[in-house]
Batch of 4 targets.
Target 1
Amino acid sequence: MTEIRGFPGEYQYLSNFYPYRIVFKDLVFDSVEAAFQAAKCQNFSDRRMFVGIAGADAKKLGRRVKLRSDWESIKIPIMAKLVRQKFENDPALL
C-alpha cells in the first residue's frame, strides 16, 4: 500500500491544511485542521485560540492543549463531520 504523504499541486484542496472556511461550535476557522485541533478543547475560550491561524500552526498549538476527556471516542466522528462540511458546502471542491 502506498502511503499518502501530502497533496501537492492540483490536489492541495484535499489536505486538511488547505485554507477553507469551516464553522465548528459557533466559531469560524481557516481550515479543517484548525477546527479539528480546536475540537480537542472542552471550553469555548480555549477553542477560540485556533481562530485565525493556519493549519500547521493549529497543529502545533493542538499538541499543547489539555485534551477533553472524551477525545479518543469523538475525534474520528468530528474529523468526518469537518471534512464532510468542507466538501458538501463547495461544489467546486466536491
Note: The chain has a mean pLDDT of 95.
Target 2
Amino acid sequence: MPSFKTSFRVSWVDTDSAKIVHFSNYFRYFEKAEEEFYRKLGCNFDDMAEKYGIILPRVEAYCHYVSPLKFNDLVEIELSVKELREKAVKYWFKVYNKQNGRLAAEGYIVVVAADRNLGGAVKIPKEIAEKLKSYMEF
C-alpha cells in the first residue's frame, strides 16, 4: 500500500494541562499531513484555487484514538488515498508516536472538489486525480 509520510513534534499549544494532545488537534494533524502531501505532489491549496478554480471543503471526518501523544513527542503521520471518486477523495491517516512506534490514532477525511466561486461540487481535475491515484490503497 503506497503512502505519504511526514513528521513533526507535538507543540505545547496542542496539549492540555496534562501535556496530552487534545483530541481535536488530530484533525489539524490530518490537515497538516494533507498540506504536505499536496506540496509533494507539486501543487498546494493556493495553486488549486488559482490554477483550477477549486477548493477542497471537508464533508466528513472520523478519528479513532488508540494511545495518547504528549508534548514534544515525535509524530509521524501516514496518509494514503482510500477512495477516489469523480468529485471526492477519502484520505486515510495513521498517526504514530515515532519514538515508541505505537499507533496513536487513525481516521479519515472526505473532501469534495468545489468551485471556489460558486461552491458547487465539480470534477477533480484530471492532472490531480492522476497524481492521487499513485497513493491509492488497493
Note: The radius of gyration is 16 Å.
Target 3
Amino acid sequence: MLHIQSTFSGFSVSDLAAAKQFYGEALGCVLEDKVGGISLTLPGGASAWMYQKADHQPAGYTMLDFVVDDIDAAHAALTDQGVVFEHYPGSPQDEKGIMRGKEHNMGPNIAWFKDPAGNILAVVEP
C-alpha cells in the first residue's frame, strides 16, 4: 500500500522575484527560498511550491482560494496593495468585482484577481 506523508500543490510563475513580493507582501504567505523555487506556507497552514518557468502559461482557472471572514474588508486590503479585481461578463458581480453568491443563491461570495504571472486567485467568504 502506498504511504503518503503529506501533500502540496505547485505552480509556475514568469517572474519569481515579482511573485515572491506579491505572495509575501500582498497575501501574507510565509516564503522560504529553496533550490529551484520558493516554498509557500499559506494562511491556515497549507503549503505550495512556486517556481519560475520560462514558457509559463497562466492558469485559466482559480488555482488558489483564500478564505476570508469579510470579503469587503479583504477587497479593500488587497486594493490598497494594488490588486485589481477581475470582472466577468454575465456574472452577478457588483462594481467592485465581487460576486455576491449568497444573495443570488449561487454559493459563497467570491472575488477573483491575478498574481503578477497572470494566475487566477480568489478571496472567498463562505
Note: The CA atoms of residues 98 and 111 lie 5 Å apart.
Target 4
Amino acid sequence: MAWAWSHTDEGIDAACENLHGQSRKFLLEAYGEWHACHEDGDEEFDSSKYSAAVEEAERLGMVEESLANYIWERAESLSTCDNGGFEAWVCPYGCHTVSFGEEE
C-alpha cells in the first residue's frame, strides 16, 4: 500500500534535491521504469520498453540532471510515497525512492 504526498514545501524540495543527488545507475533505472510502465495506468512492466529507453538515454548521452528532471516530473505527477510518508517514489513501482528529509 502507498500513500499520497502531503508534505511541506521544504520536504518536497528536499526529495527533489535528493533525487538530483542519486547515481547515474539509479537515475537510468528509474528513467527506464517510467518508460516501461504502460500509459493506460496498468503497472505491468514492459522489459523491451525499459531496455530501449535506457539504451536511448545512453546513446544520446543524457546527463544526470536531465534524467532527474524527467523522473521528478513523472514522480511529482504520481505523488506516491511509502506508508509513513518518509520516502517519495521516483519510479512507478516504488522500488526507487528518495527521502523527504535531508540526506547525508
Note: The chain has one domain: 3-99.
